[in-house]
Specification:
single chain, alpha+beta, Lipocalin, 143 residues, globular
């Protein structure tokens, strides 16, 4: 009789204990939750980027899920704006930037890319922004 009671207790308690385990962020965690972080640009249109390609530094984006705002830099100027993200769909509103003169076309290309992307995914601490199925920019998580 005692083994049967012990068996029943184990069957009842084990699922409850297993349910207390916190699940780490994985591919099954909602991407818009994982997006809520700081990301630095690694590639733009398939080309690796460096600190000097954008004036002062590589572009950086920081997403705030509560306010649905994105802030960061274009690599030369500061930027801020609104975004929406749900599942694997993303869109950026008009970006407001400071107006320092920047050498080259990196900043304009970066901002135009943000306007054009409509999908995102996160894998291995990297954020992929895509237009349809074509990846346009890859960022690395830095926070």
């Amino acid at each position: 009789m005692k083994p049967v009671i012990l068996y029943i207790i184990v069957l009842l308690v084990l699922p409850a204990v297993a349910g207390c385990h916190r699940t780490p962020l994985t591919d099954t965690t909602s991407p818009d939750i994982i997006l809520n972080d700081i990301w630095v640009l690694e590639t733009l249109h398939g080309e690796p980027v460096g600190n000097n390609d954008f004036g002062r530094e590589r572009p950086r984006l920081e997403f705030n899920r509560e306010s649905m705002r994105v802030t960061g830099t274009t690599g030369c100027n500061s930027l801020t704006g609104k975004y929406t993200a749900r599942k694997d769909v993303i869109s950026f509103g008009a970006m407001i930037t400071t107006k320092m003169a920047c050498e080259g076309t990196g900043e304009a290309t970066f901002l135009k890319t943000l306007e054009s992307v409509n999908r995102f995914s996160i894998r291995d601490l990297k954020l992929y922004l895509a237009e349809g199925n074509t990846v346009k920019a890859v960022f690395r998580k830095v926070d």
